[in-house]
Amino acid sequence: MGYEFDFSAVLTDQYIGWLLSGIRITLMLSAGAWLLSFAVGTALAVLRATNFKPAVWLVATFVEIHQNIPLLVQVLFWYFAMPEILPEAWRDWLNQNNSEFILAMIAIAMCHAAYISEALRSGLRAVPVTQYEAGRSFGFSYLQTMSYIVVPQALRLSIPPLVNHSLLLFKNTSIAMAIGVHELTYQTRQIDSDTFRTFEIFLVATILYILMSFVIMAAGNLAERRFGMGAR
Amino acid sequence: MISFENVNKWYGPELQVLNDVTAEVNKGEVVVLCGPSGSGKTTLIRTINRLEPINSGKITVNGQETHAKSANVNRLRREIGFVFQQFNLFPHMSVMDNITLAPRKLKGMSRPEAEEKALKLLARVGLEEKAGAYPSQLSGGQSQRVAIARSLAMDPPIILFDEPTSALDPEMVGEVLAVIKGLAHTGITMMCVTHEMGFARDVADRVWFLDKGVLLEDAKPGEFFSNPKHPRAQRFLADLRH
Amino acid sequence: MWEIIQNNWTLLLVGQYPNGPLGGLVATLLLAMAGLALAFPVAITIAVARISPYRPIRLVAAGIVHVVRGMPFLMVLFWSYFALPVLIGRPLSGFWTLVGALVLYESAYLAEVIRAGIQALPKGQEEAARSLGFGYFRTLFLVILPQALYNSLPALIGQFVSLIKETSLGYVISVNEFTYAAGQLNSQLLVQPVEVFSILAITYFIVCFTLTQSARWLEQRIARSRQGGPGGRAAQTLPNPLATEPMP
């Protein structure tokens, strides 16, 4: 190709500083959105499990909306449209408090909460009804049967999709660059336009992403081995 | 100990699975339920601990009407062991935890006490060495023996078996039947749905024959096998001999 | 909101076309279709390689899948943007840059869908074909893949929905597609972001939801036809014995 790679141009103290701060924001955004999405996703799954018609319908609507609209559009909606809808006091507070980061975090978390609630739900449905019956036949109450027998199995069955969605959530934080959050992809582009060393800096950023993804995958494998259905 | 009075059950308006069943099981007795498939044997045994609801009639266990609205079904079920055709061991727990779960959580037994008891039960079914194993590491016969031990852990005065050997490979049927035989006539009241007629002949105090939801025969095994009264029971036995 | 649609529906539907490049919703759908069509053969190749009897082939394919799975789509898109023109030696339009990224990214995910479909088939299918005397590849292409692809049709539609959603990221590199058109509209109108982004979101929702629902419908149909098929005994469904205590 005749292209001469020159990593020294992009790996100066200044740019390493930019990269590190990008990684920091990416990780903060991932962690915040992950916690929020698991909290909301679990609440949605519980709500749906009540079999109370309005609750089921509400959760199903939430899930369909968030699964059938591109995440970028959801992020743009939260960034451009939501502040117009929110009360003025909230808007002011957002503007003073790093609104891009917070809105991106909420958008990503809400979208993935839908997927997480579905993963938990399919885990619950995958536990055979005979397990429930066996629990009840000992004289365990509904709640006891759920908490000792059904839910522990459902959680174990849900580990693979939950890990998968955690990885997707992490990767999707890069979308926050579209509204100016200074995460890793954003910083990569900044360094690119500063140095014109496109291939070098994108190679570095790509490797960083892949390394972090591999850590998540490895943690997932560990969780599957430790707690999964086949765990010994 | 267990009595059925005019028990009826329908699936939908058309299909009547239990038709006016009236019968009695005495304390310590072993009753074998047999009949062609679809005759309602499994349904009947599942109504005893209310895994199946009934449409009319009365089932009384130990003087308590089980299908009464006021009945405490959870308390009742503690007194009735149930062994399933498909074992239904809890796959996320070790054999030991499968057996100790109910005594610990429902009877408030301490863990060491429950485990000591579990080991005795495992010895009784010949599986002491499997305490730490998980259900997926067991053969079918071993799984069913663990399931029996699990039911016994609650010291139930009654134990119900729903085709306990039907899901097993032929070579494993014997080991499970041997365990069930060992339980018979030890004071525990037993009902067993099975196609193993040899078992019925050797162990049962009485054999019930069900067909199309009707209890057609209630006889001592000798009588039932040598001289069945009802023509459908005669045909059933004749078919078995072929 | 109706006024905005009335005044700008051509921009949202086809972009500047025919006076400029094709854009809008039509471009989005074309992008997704082109991406799927081109990713498909690549995905089949990777899937077959993933279950190859030869370990080195398996390892290479697994490596590709894992690396792509470890990359955000945006990173793949930027690679396509910078590296593809260098690789093929001439500039690429935004449309084909995005298609290139979709193919790279989706091939890995599609391959896993297809592999799951292959591995879900009963082992007896392969054994039956092999014992009739078919070789490895003919067994694969005549017996295994047709069944596996048919069975994974619903998942493939799901993947098409993912592609449609991913095309929205063309916005970041200014590819003329639906989200980009809405972005342009938003900066033209300035004061009506709620309306503009609602139109955008609702339209995506209608398109994707229709596809998702048809995938579900198809899934049920396939499940039913499988139960009725030879050898597949219909799963016994007990009348719910716990009718009074519903299972969540």
TrEMBL record, chain A:
This is ABC transporter permease. It is a multi-pass membrane protein. It holds the Pfam family BPD_transp_1. The chain crosses the membrane at residues 15-44, 56-81, 101-120, 140-159, 201-223. InterPro entries: AA_ABC_transptr_permease_3TM, ArtM/GltK/GlnP/TcyL/YhdX-like, MetI-like, MetI-like_sf. The keyword Transport applies. It comes from the Bacteria. It comes from Hoeflea olei. PANTHER family: ABC TRANSPORTER PERMEASE, MEMBRANE COMPONENT OF AMINO ACID ABC TRANSPORTER. It is found in: Cell inner membrane; Cell membrane. One of its GO terms (biological process) is amino acid transport. Keywords: Cell membrane, Membrane, Transmembrane, Transmembrane helix, Transport. Its main location: membrane.
TrEMBL record, chain B:
Gene3D superfamilies: P-loop containing nucleotide triphosphate hydrolases. Keywords: ATP-binding, Nucleotide-binding, Transport. GO terms for molecular function: ABC-type amino acid transporter activity; ATP binding; ATP hydrolysis activity. The keyword Chloroplast does not apply. Residues 2-237 form the ABC transporter domain. InterPro entries: AAA+_ATPase, ABC_ATPase_HisP-typ, ABC_transporter-like_ATP-bd, ABC_transporter-like_CS, MetN_ABC_transporter-like, P-loop_NTPase. Transmembrane segments: none annotated. The keyword ATP-binding applies. Belongs to the ABC transporter superfamily. This is Amino acid ABC transporter ATP-binding protein. It comes from Hoeflea olei.
TrEMBL record, chain C:
InterPro entries: AA_ABC_transptr_permease_3TM, ArtM/GltK/GlnP/TcyL/YhdX-like, MetI-like, MetI-like_sf. It comes from the Bacteria. It holds the Pfam family BPD_transp_1. GO terms for molecular function: transmembrane transporter activity. The keyword Transmembrane applies. The chain crosses the membrane at residues 22-47, 59-82, 94-111, 132-150, 196-218. Residues 25-215 form the ABC transmembrane type-1 domain. GO terms for cellular component: ATP-binding cassette (ABC) transporter complex. It is a multi-pass membrane protein. GO terms for biological process: amino acid transport. It is found in: Cell inner membrane; Cell membrane. Keywords: Cell membrane, Membrane, Transmembrane, Transmembrane helix, Transport. The keyword Magnesium does not apply. Residues 226-248 are annotated as: Disordered. Belongs to the binding-protein-dependent transport system permease family. HisMQ subfamily. This is Amino acid ABC transporter permease.
